[in-house]
């Protein structure tokens, strides 16, 4: 109930606040997976970018969390995952979750990704300011 507004929001951004274990990440990843599923059902390719402050925490956090959500929806077998680079790609449409660490800004800056429907800044409080 606390994050119900995220599911019904038409705002272009959502900021979820709460303490540890308040399910912020779970709510966001389920919403993002659901958004991607809607595009996949329509046969459209789309992309979601996930950013953490430090790249070496991606695998044990957001990467596994996205895979968890896809499993929960029962569609993980429709995706392939790679760890170098971190990506989860839909086998049919090519829709992709891209994962980046802000500490490796050159990789993030040099990528040309189209059809982005969402950007998830995990643990946004870790970022110093808008420049990060």
From TrEMBL:
InterPro entries: P-loop_NTPase, Terminase_L_N, Viral_DNA_packaging_terminase. Residues 13-130 form the Phage terminase large subunit N-terminal domain. This is PBSX family phage terminase large subunit.
């Amino acid at each position: 109930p606390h994050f119900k507004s995220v599911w019904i929001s038409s705002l272009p951004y959502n900021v979820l606040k709460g303490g540890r274990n308040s399910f912020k990440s779970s709510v966001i990843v389920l919403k993002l997976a659901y958004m991607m599923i809607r595009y996949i059902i329509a046969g459209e390719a789309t992309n979601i970018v996930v950013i953490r402050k430090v790249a070496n925490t991606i695998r044990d956090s957001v990467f596994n969390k996205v895979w968890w959500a896809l499993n929960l929806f029962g569609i993980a077998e429709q995706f392939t995952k790679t760890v170098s680079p971190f990506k989860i790609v839909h086998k049919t449409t090519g829709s992709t979750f891209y994962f980046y660490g802000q500490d490796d800004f050159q990789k993030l800056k040099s990528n040309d990704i189209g059809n982005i429907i969402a950007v998830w800044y995990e643990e946004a409080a870790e970022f110093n300011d808008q420049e990060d």
